[in-house]
């Protein structure tokens, strides 16, 4: 570990400042989780023995990745403590001389964690990425903290301003005797300027404000405001590109709603949406059956067969395609993460759309908006109208491997 930044030093001092809780929020990669885990472990080992602690994340796997593995790699800890990770038992036992404490791993989204945490008495809880956990889980874990001197440790990236964690903890930090520290990438002394620039380029729009500027802001107006009519479009795909690229077709299925297929080519550098198919039964005043759609699909695909990603709710259409021997994967329909990833690809000018063949998609991208009525209820979602092209595009993007989004944690 390099030296610590001033903010990180405050994480190390927190246990001895008389607060009951610590809240670290802010930008990605700003050095929150790593130093919080270290400070938590040193505090636990310095002040307790034969006690239990909880390390909570979105899932047990996320706790392993973000907390356990990094802790085990710190030479200072290995030299001064005997740390044993019992993977099957989801537990770490840490010893130093006669002193021993246990650290249990919990996943806020794992069903089994709910029941497990109910029966345990804790001297401290660390919540990593708390904004991604259900409030009920967090309350459950807090209720188990009955040991004298116990403390709560929270960290997260910002979300929407009406999020329960902001309302109940960040805004009420003084009443709750909590220390609130706000982090930016500059608070992580290990990040080079190049790395910071790379992370900045991964986000745009509301996600830039949250993950880079560390602000709790609502998505407003146009979702893909980074989509540029010139830089994100092209006229002709070079034949060599088409020849070497991997091809996919992404489908958003609809019977009364429009049905859209997108023909996508990924050469490992750029992703080009080359053609689109649409059938709007209301406009055409005729609905198509699954067999008719499957016929249209086969014509659209032609002889060059490829992987097909379909709206997971379109069971009957998926069956119709599979009956024709097409290789279909049910798409991942995650909305916010998919939008964030798609926005990042637009911002980096990796994702390009044919301005000749995909006028429908380009039109829809230009009117794809955040739902401001839902926003007032604290919900984040797009307005459900003319969203079929953007939905199909999201199915494709959600299927991309993680290296495309390197360095950016998938939340
Ligand atoms: N003082 C430091 N010295 C060396 N490396 C550091 C230091 N602080 C942070 N790092 C490293 O920087 C990287 C990012 O830090 P960390 O994971 O703690 O950030 P984070 O704020 O939790 O990010 P995210 O919001 O993306 O979860 C990690 O690899 C971590 O080990
Ligand atoms: Mg983190």
How would you describe this structure to a colleague?
This protein is an alpha/beta fold and 411 residues long. The protein folds into two domains: 6-192, P-loop containing nucleotide triphosphate hydrolases (Rossmann fold, 3-Layer(aba) Sandwich), CATH 3.40.50.300; 233-405, Nucleotidyltransferase, domain 5. The protein contains 17 helices and 15 strands. The chain has an eight-stranded mixed sheet, sandwiched between helices. α12 crosses α13 and α14 (335-347) crosses α17 (388-398). The structure holds adenosine-5'-triphosphate (ATP) and magnesium ion.
Number of helices: 17
Using the coordinates shown, work out and report the CATH topology of the largest domain: Rossmann fold
- Strand proportion, as a percent range, falls in 15-25%
CATH architecture of the largest domain: 3-Layer(aba) Sandwich
Give the fraction of residues assigned to helices. Answer: 25-40%
Q: Strand order across the biggest sheet? A: 3-4-5-2-6-7-1-8
Main β-sheet: number of strands, strand sense, barrel status?
8 strands, mixed
Bound molecules: adenosine-5'-triphosphate, magnesium ion
C-alpha-based Rg, rounded:
25 Å
Question: What is the CATH superfamily of the largest domain?
Answer: P-loop containing nucleotide triphosphate hydrolases
Q: Alpha-carbon distance between the termini?
A: 25 Å
Summed over residues and divided by their number, the pLDDT gives a mean of 94
CATH class of the largest domain: Alpha Beta
Based on Cα principal axes, name the global outline.
elongated
């Amino acid at each position: 570990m390099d030296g610590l930044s001033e903010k990180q030093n405050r994480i190390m001092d927190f246990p001895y400042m008389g607060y009951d809780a610590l809240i670290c929020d802010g930008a990605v990669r700003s050095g929150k989780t790593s130093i919080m885990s270290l400070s938590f472990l040193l505090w636990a080992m310095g002040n307790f023995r034969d006690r239990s602690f909880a390390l909570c994340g979105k899932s047990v796997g996320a706790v392993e990745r973000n907390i356990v593995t990094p802790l085990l790699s710190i030479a200072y800890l290995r030299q001064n403590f005997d740390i044993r990770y019992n993977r099957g038992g989801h537990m770490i036992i840490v010893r130093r001389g006669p002193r021993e404490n246990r650290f249990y791993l919990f996943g806020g989204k794992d069903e089994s964690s709910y029941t497990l945490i109910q029966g345990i008495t804790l001297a401290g809880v660390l919540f990593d990425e708390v904004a991604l956990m259900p409030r009920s889980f967090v309350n459950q874990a807090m209720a188990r903290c009955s040991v004298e001197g116990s403390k709560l440790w929270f960290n997260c990236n910002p979300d929407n301003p009406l999020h329960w964690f902001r309302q109940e903890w960040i805004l009420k930090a003084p009443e709750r005797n909590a220390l609130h520290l706000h982090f930016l990438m500059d608070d992580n002394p290990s990040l080079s300027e190049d790395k910071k620039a790379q992370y900045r380029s991964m986000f745009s729009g509301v996600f830039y404000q949250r993950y880079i500027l560390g602000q709790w802001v609502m998505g407003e107006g146009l979702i893909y405001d980074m989509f540029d009519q010139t830089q994100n479009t092209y006229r002709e795909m070079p034949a060599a590109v088409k020849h070497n690229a991997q091809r996919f077709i992404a489908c958003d299925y609809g019977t009364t709603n429009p049905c859209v297929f997108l023909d996508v080519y990924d050469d490992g550098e750029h992703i080009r949406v080359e053609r689109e198919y649409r059938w709007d039964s209301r406009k055409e005043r005729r609905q198509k059956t699954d067999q008719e759609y499957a016929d249209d699909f086969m014509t659209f695909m032609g002889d060059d067969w490829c992987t097909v990603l379909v709206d997971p709710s379109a069971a009957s259409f998926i069956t119709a395609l599979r009956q024709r021997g097409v290789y279909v994967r049910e798409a991942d329909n995650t909305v916010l993460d998919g939008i964030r990833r798609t926005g990042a690809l637009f911002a980096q000018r990796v994702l390009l759309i044919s301005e000749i063949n995909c006028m429908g998609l380009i039109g829809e991208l230009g009117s794809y908006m955040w739902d401001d009525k839902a926003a007032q209820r604290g919900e984040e979602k797009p307005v459900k109208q003319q969203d079929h092209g953007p939905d199909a595009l999201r199915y494709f993007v959600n299927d991309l491997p993680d290296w495309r989004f390197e360095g950016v944690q998938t939340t």
